[in-house]
Amino acid sequence: MSNFQLGKYAVGVDAKKAAIEAARGKSQSDSAIVKWINPADCPERNRIVFDDSSSMNGYIEDAKKGVVEFLKNCTPNQTAVAIHPMNSPEMKLQSDLIQLALDIQTKHFNSGGTPFFNTMKIALEAKPTLTRLVAFTDGSPTDRLQPEEGESTLRGYYQRDYWHDSADIIIKIAKNIVPDKCIPIDTVFFGSLGNIVEIKLLKYLSEATGGIFLHFDPAKINFKTAFKYLAPCYRAMLTDGGFRAAVERGEKK
């Protein structure tokens, strides 16, 4: 990438440096004088849907490290983050991302199914209102959302695709939380290219809301080194198709 191309990302890179230096510089001796603003006052409020299903058991530690890297690439007192596991208690929205990073490293996640849609709905409707949703999963949703009263669940003689119906409900919620604005949903599928239907579902959610879709194949890429690219520092870079493809190939560390 040329110096000219890097110019448009300068703010994000500076933000990353500031966040990392803040993380490295924090200690118990200075924690008392660090003033973290109310998370509701942060201009960027991200909620992360964290897949802690049974199929993620072998990748949970990498996923935790990936979220920590995400947090390191958020600007202090500009971004608040909450973690919404699918089978474990929510880690509430907070602006002290250093503490959140420490908490997630020691957190025990329960394993279970993949209530993908219901967890997304909870995160979208939670207060303080989010400005962006980030969701990752390695499997197929094991839940569905019920359509609103009066909406048909049939297409002619054929039963509707419940995943598609549930995705449409999520998209509708994202478009109605804030007047005249859709909440972007970034999605990551963590699995092989053979999961065509799952990949299509996550791409649909992101494309319909103005978010970003990434595919992480565990045979090619480590979650802990790749998830950070959805953090504010790097996010704009992912709008470049070549850069996004390089991340998905594991060429960006």
Report what the structure shows.
The structure is a single chain. The chain is of the alpha/beta class. The protein has one domain (46-147, 159-248): Rossmann fold, CATH 3.40.50.410. The chain is 41% helix and 15% strand. The protein has helices spanning 3-7, 10-25, 28-31, 60-72, 97-106, 116-125, 162-176, 196-209, 223-226, 232-235, 241-248, and strands spanning 44-50, 79-85, 91-94, 132-137, 154-155, 158-159, 185-190, 213-216. The protein has a 6-stranded mixed β-sheet with strand order 3-2-1-4-7-8, with helices on both faces. A two-stranded antiparallel sheet has the order 5-6. Helix 6 (116-125) runs parallel beside helix 7. The chain is globular, with a radius of gyration of 18 Å. It starts with a helix and ends in a 5-residue tail after the last helix.
Classified in CATH, the superfamily is von Willebrand factor, type A domain
The helix-and-strand class reads: alpha/beta
Count of helical stretches: 11
CATH class: Alpha Beta
Tell me the radius of gyration.
Answer: 18 Å
